[in-house]
Amino acid sequence: MSVKLKFILISLAGVVALLLDQITKNYFVANQGSQITIWEPLLFFSFQGNPNVAFGLPINIVIYIIMTAIIFGLLVYMTYQTLKRKEVFQFALIIFIIAGALGNIIDRIRFGYVIDFIHVPFWSIFNLADIYIVIAVILWMGYIIFYESKRKKVPKES
């Protein structure tokens, strides 16, 4: 499979991920008050609007807009770089970070808050977009630590 086709398929997967995020959020907006129990008492789904940012931290809207613009600028630049260097794995990670970020930005524009619905009582409440971002960042850190750092090491001369 050509690298170009891989980039196209990964981009389509990012679009599907974004659509899945929006479909699930719309379901819980339309069914506020209902709850789906997956594994009592550890995991259930129900609507909750979150006006804050990551991990429920409050932030000024101006700072949020500035941070969002800077982060998206960096992601666009990094996307360009990964395309130029034909780094398929890193491209995939960036696409899923972008899909997650767009999912939450769409919520903020539509509702003024982010739709969260996955409740883990001992941890937090989140959505699919948050999962995309967190998993992609963790994988990227692992990639940098375990692959990039070893690849860039220069062999010692005797």
Protein described:
The protein is of the alpha+beta class and about 160 residues long. The chain has helices at about 5-30, 60-85, 90-110, 130-150, and strands at about 35-40, 45-50, 115-120, 125. It has a four-stranded antiparallel sheet. A hairpin with a 3-residue loop joins strand 1 (about 35-40) and strand 2 (about 45-50). The radius of gyration is 18 Å and the shape is globular. It starts with a helix and ends in a 7-residue tail after the last helix.
Short description:
This protein is α+β, with helices and mostly antiparallel strands and 158 residues long. The protein contains four helices and four strands. The chain has a four-stranded antiparallel beta sheet.
Q: Globular, elongated, flat, extended or rod-shaped: what is the shape?
A: globular
| Total beta-strand segments | 4
Low-confidence blocks of residues: none
> Which sheet architecture does the biggest sheet show?
4 strands, antiparallel
Strand content: 5-15%
Indicate the structural class.
alpha+beta
Which sequence of SSEs, written as H and E, runs from N to C? HEEHHEEH
Total helical elements? 4
In total, how many domains does the architecture comprise?
1
**What is the typical, i.e. mean, pLDDT?**
88
**Main β-sheet, spatial strand arrangement:** 1-2-3-4
Distance linking N and C termini: 41 Å
Radius of gyration: 18 Å
Proportion in helices: 55-70%
